Amino acid sequence: MAKKTEAERKYDASSIQVLKGLEAVRRRPGMYVGGTDVKALHHLVYEIVDNSIEEALAGRCGRIEVTIHEDTSITVQDDGVGIPVALHPTEKISALELVHTTLHAGGKFDNDAYKVSGGLHGVGAAAVNALSEWMEVTVRREGAVWYQRYQRGIPDAPVKKIGKLEKEASTGTTTHFKFDETIFEAEAAYRFETLMNRFREMAFVTSGVFLRLRDERLSPTREMSFYFEGGVRSFVRYLNRNRKPIHDPVYDQKEVDGIEVEVALQYTEGIAISEFAFANTIHTPDGGTHLTGVRTAVTRVINTYARKNNFLKEKDTNFSSDDTREGLTTVVSVKHPDPQFESQTKVKLMNAEVAGVVAAVTADAFSLYLEENPREAKKIIERCLTSSRARDAARKARELVMRKSALESLTLPGKLADCSERDPNKCELYIVEGDSAGGSAKQGRDRHFQAILPLRGKILNTERARLDKILANNEVKAMISALGTGIGETFDAGNLRYGRIIIMCDADVDGSHIRTLLLTFFFRYMPALIEKGHLYIAQPPLYSLKAGKEMHYAYTEAQNQELLKQLQKAGKKYSLQRYKGLGEMNPEQLWETTMDPAERMLLQVTVEDAVAADKTFDMLMGSEVGPRKRFIMTHSSEVRNLDV
Fold it and tell me: Under 8 Å CB-to-CB from 12, ≥6 apart: which residues?
């Protein structure tokens, strides 16, 4: 008989572990809130606020207030009916304690209690409790105030009555919690802008509900409130406020087979596609069947109208979905009694029946609009025709750029100084501004794993240009060839030749502009590289201070002032140099400060909020001058002779 291997000997009945209570959440937080990073930290807040939003959808809540306290704890207060506090008939503990200490326990399984809900798994409040250092829940209902405190998911004591509810006081629930710093990453911290953008979205898709966010970490306290009655139609207008719409928003709201659909769409003169989908007020960034329904309907309606009115001849092919989506801003919100999400973090809606329902509602509204507004309909069809011709030209240009494999030397741009390593996960590509900096970078790099691609001048502003024009730009073609992923319909992140793509620009106005142009290109045409964490920004030093044989580098103005104070205090003589360009550093300095993995600082580019990012790029790089000028005036500490 063969002897058991060491692995086989170790695996027996005693190896089977049972995680009781909320221990599973603390052991595997990624399964419940998506990880332990800053995104997961914000997800804790969303889970609690979502519970209040569901009270609003049930018609029992009109006001929700969220506060970030100085100690980084969070308070969420609503004026709903309050979580039940009576003993559960079978579990024999308070219902309040049950929903905060037991997974898959909640009122969302019963359609009588909540017709529409996003938290059908019943793990939201319990997961937040498990991942909090402490949590306090106060409930105002049944003429009294009830309270319970938990530490890392475990109750300090049973639910207790702590006072009488005054007649003028509203019912509701207040949840106060502090995330567990032993679980979340050290640099994770709440961002006011991230929460603000999320709550704005919630207010748009939950019309008639007042949402307020306060941040007490700042002095004076920062505060923002949201209240909208126009629903997703107001949302579309908000998204397009820095663009030039070519018609009023097309809008409809209907309930079909128990599924409530609200959709709004509007074409603009730009080329950017903006699509936002919500299921039971929860933003689904990866879309799903509701977004598929809108896309299908829009394409079908436009093709039908174009053929009926002779915009498309018999020999012409139909418009593709890409042709009909260019310049289109779409917001769709569905409320489903039994939504099926791809995961607990609810990034994608999976209900198959939703696609047909949304498509029917969208098609009815859009068809009627085109028939009743022939002038606007003609503008929409003409922009689809222009998009179709440009897409055909882009396809030919793309085939020309990508004719040979990106891994073959013939397709790599001549200016690229490649690395010898062939494992993409170990390789880095530095996209460097200018030949001078490119020369220093090529000499200073580690040739084994670092590749250098110098760019000559500023690339095309891809926010204002179609793909065929973009692919005619030599600098863009060089980047696409070097990366190996293709672009547009042929984009494949699996062919990426470098695990890190690092933008390295001068620390001046031109450098900032080039960096913004590059970020715009990646955000609009290769967003998967950002989503998968491949894109970075190098942080070269602003100053060098030489004191004797010692060389010090300062990466910020504050660091420079601190170094100056230290040198002056020590009585040392020093020379100060302000770096305006990367080319001012010799290869050794560039390696030491900006390229050495052991010493350098890199900023990873992430997109926490698609709405905010879309708005920012549109405002900074779009055709409208007014919003950009206001932004510069607001964010510039010193503005002289401004010419935008």
Answer: none
- Asked if 379 and 246 touch (Cβ cutoff 8 Å), the reply is yes
Q: Which amino acid appears at position 268 of this protein? A: T
Query: Cβ atoms within 10 A of the Cβ of 538, count?
Result: 22
Q: What's the rounded Cα separation, in Å, for the pair 581 and 507?
A: 6
Please state which of the four CATH numbers 3.40.50.2300, 3.90.226.10, 3.30.1490.20, 3.30.230.10 is assigned to the domain occupying 232-398: 3.30.230.10
Q: Which of 185, 508, 562, 588 is catalytic?
A: 508
Look at residues 125, 24, 27, 112 and name the one whose alpha carbon lies nearest to residue 76. 125
Q: Is the pLDDT of residue 120 over 50?
A: no
CA distance 614 to 328: 13
Q: Which is more confident, 21 or 470? A: 470
Residue 508: active-site member: yes
User: Using one digit for the tens of pLDDT, what is the confidence trace for 345-368?
Assistant: 668 899 999 999 999 999 999 999
Q: Which amino acid is at 324?
A: T
Q: Is 506 a catalytic residue?
A: yes
User: Does residue 305 contact residue 230 with C-beta atoms inside 8 Å?
Assistant: no
Q: What is the mean pLDDT of residues 143-151?
A: 95
Q: What percent of the chain has pLDDT over 90?
A: 45
510 is catalytic: yes
- Name the more confident of 189 and 606: 189
Q: Domain limits of the chain?
A: 23-226, 232-398, 412-540, 612-644
Task: Please report the pLDDT score of residue 45 as a whole number.
Answer: 94
Q: Which helix (H) or strand (E) holds 553?
A: strand 550-554
- CA dist., res. 37 & res. 42, Å (int): 9
In CATH terms, the fold of domain 412-540 is Rossmann fold (3.40.50)
Measure the CA–CA gap between 61 and 50, rounded to whole angstroms: 12
Distance in angstroms (rounded) separating the CA atoms of residues 478 and 410: 12
CA 315, 316, 317: angle at the middle one, nearest 5?
A: 120
The 8 Å CB, 24+ separation contacts for 620-627 are: 620/516, 620/520, 621/461, 621/462, 621/463, 621/464, 621/516, 621/517, 621/520, 622/242, 622/243, 622/270, 622/272, 622/463, 622/464, 623/244, 623/269, 623/270, 623/464, 624/242, 624/243, 624/244, 627/241, 627/242
Is the per-residue pLDDT at 622 higher than 80? no
241 has pLDDT over 80: yes
**For residue 182, is it left (φ>0), alpha (ψ between -120 and 50) or beta?**
alpha
Considering the candidates 54, 201, 506, 592, report the single residue annotated as catalytic: 506
- For residues 276 and 334, the answer to whether their CB atoms sit within 8 Å is no
| Active-site entry in 510, 584, 608, 624 | 510
Interval 420-443: pLDDT, tens = 999 999 999 999 988 888 888 999
Q: What is the dihedral of CA 501, 198, 45, 529, to 10 degrees?
A: -10
Is the domain covering 23-226 a CATH 3.40.50.11750 domain? no
* Stated pTM of the model: 0.68
Which of 252, 433, 609, 614 is an active site residue?
Answer: 433
Residue 626 amino acid letter: G
Q: Is 286 a catalytic residue?
A: no
Q: For 519-572, what is each residue's pLDDT tens digit?
A: 888 988 898 898 889 999 998 888 888 888 888 888 888 888 998 998 888 888
Alpha carbon separation from 479 to 408, 475, 496, 522, 626 (Å, rounded): 15, 6, 11, 11, 32
Q: Report pLDDT for 34.
A: 81
